Amino acid sequence: MTETSAGQYFWCLRHSRVESGDDVCPAKYRLGPYSTSAEAERALDRVQQRNEKWDAEDERWENG
Question: Is residue 30 part of a domain?
Answer without folding.
Answer: yes
